[in-house]
Fold:
Amino acid sequence: MASEVSKPTIKQYSKHLLVCVGPRCTQGESEALFQQLGSRLREQGLDEGSFRVKRTRCSCFAVCKSGPILVVHPDGTWYCNVTLEVFDRILEEHLKGGKPVEEYVFHQAPSPGS
Structure:
């Protein structure tokens, strides 16, 4: 007889931001940015509901230069040199408007099925 597996739950989200907070490329700058993203998302109403944006800190993306590095999923868009001002543009133009901020994109994953 199989035992029942306990599974966690998570609230629905539309985008997932991954922020590299590894110490090699930003000396704490990325962690400070990560902390500020939560309030920016709340201010824009992107912390709840169907348009919720989830954020997660990651220890290292092995890029190790031009940080802070931020990745938007499921889009597969990788951003470099992300300051709070750059994030405000990413928030408005990409997360809300659907158009990546090209001058900070250094990698774009192919679309599924391409």
About this structure: Residues 21 and 27 are 9 Å apart (CA to CA). Strands lie at 15-20, 53-58, 70-73, 77-79, 105-108. The first strand starts at residue 15 and ends at 20. The chain has one domain: 15-108.
